[in-house]
Design brief:
By secondary structure, this protein is of the alpha+beta class. The chain contains 4 helices and 7 strands. The chain has a 7-stranded antiparallel beta sheet with strand order 4-3-2-1-7-6-5. The N and C termini lie far apart (55 Å).
Length: 170
């Protein structure tokens, strides 16, 4: 328990993090179980390729996160309804703690579980140079689409990443 208090105190003492909007995979409101009181509190969750952050305010990047989960250490992310006796819950398991989170619907939970699962898998997989370039190009396109709003999706074909590789891949 002392470890968790030290961890929370060290997070409170942190400086605000710089969230590069191009690296955000998913963000939104989720209920997170607190470490000490075991109550569910509404948190703005931000998923990047390396970490999962929670904030008290929507896009509150000018404040330190309430939690910072290193996805390189993530062992499992799965549904947890049976463990919590609550609907739409899921757990993110890292060596020092099991984080319990609750979505507002089954579909939303499944989206979060899939997105976190992809991030943890990609963190562990080594890409070739050409795969990494393709991936970075796709991330840039997605970030531009998000930054420009819904109207950018109509122009997405113009900004499609160039294909690389031999003709058999086209």
């Amino acid at each position: 328990m002392d470890f968790l208090r030290k961890k929370v105190d060290s997070l409170r003492g942190q400086q605000p993090i710089e969230v590069n909007i191009t690296t955000v995979r998913k963000e939104g409101w989720i209920y997170k179980e607190s470490a000490t009181v075991r109550q569910y509190r509404k948190r703005w969750m931000v998923l990047t390729p390396e970490k999962l952050y929670s904030f008290t305010k929507e896009r509150g990047y000018n404040e330190p996160p309430t939690e910072e989960i290193d996805l390189k250490l993530c062992g499992t992310v799965k549904s947890a309804d049976d463990l919590t006796n609550r609907p739409y819950t899921f757990t993110v398991q890292v060596p020092e703690r099991n984080f319990f989170l609750m979505a507002s619907s089954d579909a939303e939970r499944n989206e979060w579980v899939a997105a976190i699962g992809r991030a943890t898998t990609e963190n562990r997989r080594v890409r070739s140079y050409s795969e990494e370039r393709d991936y970075q190009d796709q991330q840039a396109i997605q970030a531009a689409t998000r930054a420009n709003g819904p109207t950018a999706s109509a122009d997405a074909d113009e900004h499609e990443a160039p294909r690389r590789g031999g003709t058999r891949f086209q």
